[in-house]
Amino acid sequence: MDQIQLQKLDTTVLKWLDQVHHLVEQRVRQRMQVDTKSSHRDLVTNVDREVEQYYVQHIRNFDPEAQILGEEGLGDAVKSMKGRIWFVDPIDGTMNFVKQQSEFATMVAVYEDGEPVMAWIMDVQQHDIIHGGPEYGVFHNGEKLELSADIGLDEGLVILSGARLLYEEPGFPQLAKAAMGYRVYGSAGISYLHVLTGKAVAYLSRMRPWDFAAGITLAKSLGLRVGTIDEQPMNMLVSGSVLVATDKAYADIMALLQKKG
Amino acid sequence: MDQIQLQKLDTTVLKWLDQVHHLVEQRVRQRMQVDTKSSHRDLVTNVDREVEQYYVQHIRNFDPEAQILGEEGLGDAVKSMKGRIWFVDPIDGTMNFVKQQSEFATMVAVYEDGEPVMAWIMDVQQHDIIHGGPEYGVFHNGEKLELSADIGLDEGLVILSGARLLYEEPGFPQLAKAAMGYRVYGSAGISYLHVLTGKAVAYLSRMRPWDFAAGITLAKSLGLRVGTIDEQPMNMLVSGSVLVATDKAYADIMALLQKKG
Lengths: 261, 261
Fold this sequence. Notes:
Keywords (chains A, B): Hydrolase, Magnesium, Metal-binding
Number of domains of chain A: 2
Cofactor (chains A, B): Mg(2+)
Binding site for Mg(2+) (chains A, B): 71, 89, 91-92, 211
Oligomer: homodimer
Low-confidence stretches of chain A: none
CATH class of the largest domain in chain A: Alpha Beta
Shape of chain A: globular
Strand content of chain A: 25-35%
Largest sheet of chain A: 7 strands, mixed
Protein name (chains A, B): Inositol monophosphatase family protein
Radius of gyration of chain A: 17 Å
Order of helices and strands of chain A: HEEHEEHEEEEEEHHEHEHEEH
CATH architecture of the largest domain in chain A: 2-Layer Sandwich
Number of helices of chain A: 8
Number of strands of chain A: 14
Mean pLDDT of chain A: 95
Organism (chains A, B): Weissella hellenica
Helix content of chain A: 25-40%
């Protein structure tokens, strides 16, 4: 896509995000319907479904040829990365959404023939958005975002998946101990916003495609390092252990993980 | 103190908090001087000291008879809980302050002959304040705060000290597993704000007096449960393992801790 097309794409999705912000704010004041999916900790609400439905409708209108891969399954059964694919996570951090009404995100990413084009992450309650792509640059609420200082693990905060740490995913406790400090936020989107703005030096979790598509697009576009930690190549259609970090923290983490293996 | 005195106390400290908010905002834009205390993870900045100095000066003017127990040691060497004592934590979550410029708090509490009188916790960057006392009620930015629903551990989020969990303080991993989810925020004040507003059902950490004085005052005043988990009586002048929780989560946690012992 050329700059005019990217600009139009950005403007369009930013308008959707404003609508999603207002929709979610309204729904928070009403009674929410909370259901469980794979376990009693895997929550879904009517709002997750309604927001995904909103995205799917608007994407179909705007980009009818594209396929949509969404968390709640209202899009398509995407089998390959050919053509244009929209990754949609309507409410990321649903437990925070239900319990806290804050610290949750909404995420959208566009890929074309396997390559990232643009992505958006919004802290919904704060209405705080990072958006951009490799050919477009990265912006924080419309202002150019610059890459923060390249800080190593022992000088920075690392954000970890709470479950992966608690059940001692290989390397996770060691990483937490080697870092200056660690945090557990319960939302991939909120965690990515921390790394993108230089508040944390790394974020690691095992995630599904809609959890990491936007985060890795924005991280790469900004100049952060992106990789997997389970020695699997990055596959945009399956779950993986995804790491986003500063150059130095990336090297620190990889060295630690190799030592333990 | 009567209601007029409590009201005056509240108004006075709320004015100080506004000043502290502005002072910290200014300092964040300038170059910060970061030093370490007991370890390379125990940070202190010129802002911690400057804010404590601000409190000490204003408390001396407002309440010259009182003693002051502050984190940075600019107050008094308090030996007993007799008379009026001000607990001051100028910047709680200094690592977040340094690394994130957000998710840190400032906390003040007033005790009289060992009994809590009033307390204030401010999320400094968000300028979000919970304030009140047992004879005054609890307020969230001036609006009466009501006790949230009494939710148990398996239906709510628990907030834990990251270090205590990582180094497997007895019971902590079990609590994290029993809860619906756990979070690690790196600031006692920010954690207390979550429990006070019903976003989390419990917060546990080993803390020093200025870390918990305001939190337990506001929690008790609101009707939450407060206790220690190391079988020591609560002592306002020494460190302790302090728990603040809903009634149900308190019972759940105590049952879990007894089972493991």
